[in-house]
Write a structure and sequence with these properties.
- This protein is of the alpha/beta class and 316 residues long.
- The chain is built from 11 helices and 10 strands.
- Helix 5 links the parallel strand 6 and strand 7.
- The radius of gyration is 19 Å and the shape is globular.
- About 5% of the residues have low confidence.
Length: 316
Amino acid sequence: MRLSRRDLVKLGAGAGMSLGLGWRPTVGQTKPLIQKPIPSSGEMIPVVGIGTARRYNVETEAELAPIREVLRRYPDLGGRLIDTAPGYGRAETVVGRLVNEIGNRDRMFLATKVAVGGRRGQPGGDTIQAGKDQMERSMRLLHTDKIDLMQVHNLRDVDTQLGTLQEWKQDGRIRYLGITSTSSRQYEAFERVMREYELDFVQMAYTIDNRGVEERLLPLAADRGMAVLVALPYGRGRVFRAVGGLDSPLPDWAAEIDCESWGQFFLKWIVSHPSVTCAIPGTAKVSYLIDNHGAARGRLPDAGMRQRMLEFFEGL
């Protein structure tokens, strides 16, 4: 059953965090893992995942080696969710091959997308079969017979594809379904789909300097009981440039929320929003993996601290 907002608060979403059940500290991991519930099921997922756009579109062994190490170590750090798409070049192939080689599929939450037909939600040709063919191909590339989350990418032929996703979910081929868009030009259409369909997930862009989804989409996700994945949490590096680079010193008070880097500062600001379930920064190096997942441990900012962080950033 889909959880109510009151249920989510009880599970910890209202406070912004929940301790990972069964977690045991290892060296360098002395703070509990922060997780939030998927509203439609109550299943808990860590608040930081992995995005694969651009960085996983690789082919040579030299390029694959650091990603292999990321995916090998990822679950040991408490991570689960990996988001990819057919439109990300070889990303599905890379994720599927490496996870299959490592043998940790059962520890992963694999999310991918379907994108066929016309843009802006307009159908074109036999998109029902084209969508099915694309999703079958994704399953082959990912070496799995069940996708944890299938999303309609950028609302491409969204009504048609959601019809197929509903069938596949009922048949047990996918566990959750959703939609994605990182374009403010699609907000109106995005809201319409959120109101008309029972979605498990919505994915959108949200950063400390790009807060347009706060007005309508994030509150609607909470009202409708939909998990929120946040794409582009660093604004393609824009927020780092704004603070003077990765090595620029943090304000002293960032220690109050266990921030050790600017990456953690920006991720904690995002995932502490009550409507946000998980942020998915691009992660293709172990050093970035360890740093990003530092944001999924320790203290999260409350509303007052989030405002302080925002005012500090805007005052730079």
